Amino acid sequence: MPAIAETRDAVESLGQSTYKWGFETDIEMDLAPKGLNEDTIRLISRRKEEPEWLLGWRLKAFQAWQAMAEPTWAKVSHPPIDFQDAHYYAAPKKKAGPKSLDEVDPELLRTYEKLGIPLHEQALLAGVELPEGQEARAPIAVDAVFDSVSVVTTFRETLAKAGVIFCPISEAVRDHPELVRRYLGSVVPVSDNFYAALNSAVFTDGSFVYVPRGVRCPMELSTYFRINARNTGQFERTLIVVEDGASVSYLEGCTAPMRDENQLHAAVVELVAMDDASIKYSTVQNWYPGDENGRGGIYNFVTKRGACRGARSKISWTQVETGSAITWKYPSCILQGDGAVGEFYSVAVTNNHQQADTGTKMIHLGRNTRSTIIAKTISAGQSDSTYRGLVRMMPKASGARNFTQCDSLLIGDRCGAHTVPYIESRNMTAKVEHEATTSKISEDQLFYCRQRGLSEEDAVGLIVNGFCKDVLKELPMEFAVEAQKLLQISLEGSVG
Amino acid sequence: MSNEFVRIAGLCAKISDGGTDKEILRGVDLEIPAGEVHAIMGPNGSGKSTLSYVLAGREDYEVTGGTATFKGQDLLALEPEERAALGLFLAFQAPVELPGVNNANFLRTAVNAVRRARGQDELDAVAFLKAVRKETKHLSMSDDMLKRNVNVGFSGGEKKRNEVLQMRMLAPSFAILDETDSGLDIDALRIVAEGVNSLRAPDFSALVITHHQRLLDYIVPDRIHVMARGRIIHSGGPELAKQLEAQGYARFLAEAA
């Protein structure tokens, strides 16, 4: 059975109240017909009122995609994806969601409660419909994340005063075409890989951030804040450009499990850092991982790449990945400017039947470039997790250095952890270090904690958080606290 | 109730070792009234540590017979953390390392877990820190040990002190100390013993497992039991320690055989 149909069945079997809103698309207005061809792309571009150059760009990507095959090198397996069995454009529309929290899967609500998410926010995350009459306010529902609208207003004013642009990418295409045109696809070219090409052809929205020269962005930017965050869809496109001496910290995702009707997600994130610029990009990903038998769940094929173009520029990726049935993701840094710094801090948790193949690429081009990779992998249940990383020292990267540490923690005896580090050095003065460990949560550790009064779940949470400490400390404060709780919740029922 | 504090009767337990069952406890009878400190001595492999594990609820051991009650409750029916909440504490012979887990954080999590279970208010960070500082001073421990990861890179003596610190913070009513004296120099031994002695109270009992009479110079027990081949084979007063030190276990083993 094609994967998309399987998810639909699995999801529908969860019951009417859980997931229903995602699959009533057939007769809605303003929906592209199923399938992917040039007409679909023209339709998307027309509906979004895009300039000619962008349509041309999309079509070029589509041509490239048609000539490409799905990559098979990752250690993941899934039924074939039928790319023609999907709608590639659906305008934000009235959705048949649950009418109130009473209709939402109690399991989901319990998770929200454990994460300490306030009630009105729970409704939002679970996709609860607003009553008739309040419909007009639906597009700005994300405002409800805050206690009052004024927070959002203040936030917009502060950014504008600093000269920072933070808006949906479709808005940026309209209002800042010269910037988008200059940088879009400059880090991840349209033909970079199968999924990036697909994204380039059909992306519908995403975020655009531009921080002008010398500006330190006055607040952390979060997709949480972004007005249209709810309807970004499955092919998200993010572009962040930070000019000389400027800096930004960007938070993507949310610790609360977002229900999503699209099984296939293929996002592209491009970061550009000029001289002395710095970008910190933090992700917490907790998408639907499928049920405990491995049915359903999001397939997450993401291309994230940052270009440290300027001297002494710095890009730091931090990710906590607990969701999705399949994660295929390698946030990378191209260290072009002399003295540029790339960092990758990652925690990947897999439970039940989840599969994760994730890691990073550090491409050292400039002199004295430095990179650090800390990857923590936790596998439980019957899941499989792979760290795949590439460190490449190019001929001109004199004095470049890399330090890599990959640690795997196994819970139970039916899961797998794999480490696949590629190291290529073409410069005699470059230095590459790699350390790796694999360990298990021992019975001794669990018993010790329980003898001191901790429940088994709390004990696992404590041990896992200890294991991930080096990564969690890189997350912004409030995110870190949520991420700790999330790790524990993701591993519930994984021992004993 | 005071007569009915810790009561172990006919306790039998086995462990599965590579497919074959090994019987380790073969009918342990032991009563510890409230307010008393008892010691268990005996040759290696006699089942002393197993007894402490079985009482604390380690799952590797299967209880095949007998009973163990504490404050009138069936210990064997409780989860390890429920036994801890009830007041049972085991100072491990080999304290376990928890990499990345901050010692103070671990201790506070544990203290608040048992306080919650006992219906007491949780300690906030300030109250906790105040309480723990008092104890570390008492045990001549540096504050630095609170910042390190649980037992990671601790010397043998530091690990044992850390066990006693946890014991004092968790306020147990029944403490089992499994060879807490091993690896301690004389000063540390005195400090650890003092840590136990100052807990002595009418509603506190302890079971001290040791190989050496030396510890019992500092923690003077009310009763001493000799354990061999999974049973208590002889019991006596504190003077028994000196006798064992001088004569060894041979006499009792011969009598029991």
Concise synopsis of the structure shown:
The complex is a heterodimer of chains A (about 500) and B (about 260). Chain A is of the alpha/beta class.
Walk me through what this model shows:
The complex is a heterodimer of chains A (496) and B (257). By secondary structure, chain A is α/β, with parallel strands linked by helices. Chain A has one domain (2-491). Chain A has 14 helices and 19 strands. In chain A, the strands form two sheets. In chain A, strands 1, 2, 4, 6, 7, 9, 11, 12, 14, 16 and 18 form an eleven-stranded mixed beta sheet that branches. Chain A is globular and about 65 Å long. Chain B is an alpha/beta fold. Chain B has a domain at 6-97 and 172-256: P-loop containing nucleotide triphosphate hydrolases (Rossmann fold, 3-Layer(aba) Sandwich). In chain B, 38% of the residues lie in helices and 26% in strands. In chain B, strand 9 (223-228) and strand 10 (231-236) form a beta hairpin. Chain B starts with 5 loop residues before the first strand and ends with a helix. The mean pLDDT of chain B is 91. The interface between A and B is medium-sized, with 23 and 32 residues.
Overall geometry of chain A: globular
- The portion of residues forming beta strands of chain B comes to 25-35%
**Weakly predicted, low-confidence segments of chain B:** none
Number of helices of chain A: 14
What is the total tally of β strands of chain A? 19
Name the biggest interface. A-B, 23 and 32 residues
What structural category arises from helix and sheet content of chain B?
A: alpha/beta
The strand count of chain B comes to: 10
Q: In which range does the helix fraction of chain A lie? A: 25-40%
Q: In sequence order, what are the helices and strands of chain B, one letter per element? A: EEEHEEHEHHHHEHEHEEHH
Which CATH class of the domain at 6-97 and 172-256 in chain B applies here? Alpha Beta
Roughly how many Å is the radius of gyration of chain A? 22 Å
User: Major sheet of chain B: size, sense and barrel closure?
Assistant: 6 strands, mixed
The neighbouring-strand order within the major sheet of chain B is 6-7-8-3-9-10
Characterize the biggest β-sheet of chain A: 11 strands, mixed
User: Can you give the helix content of chain B as a percent range?
Assistant: 25-40%
Shape of chain B: globular
- Helical segment count of chain B: 10
Low-confidence residue ranges of chain A: 1-29, 92-96, 129-151, 225-232
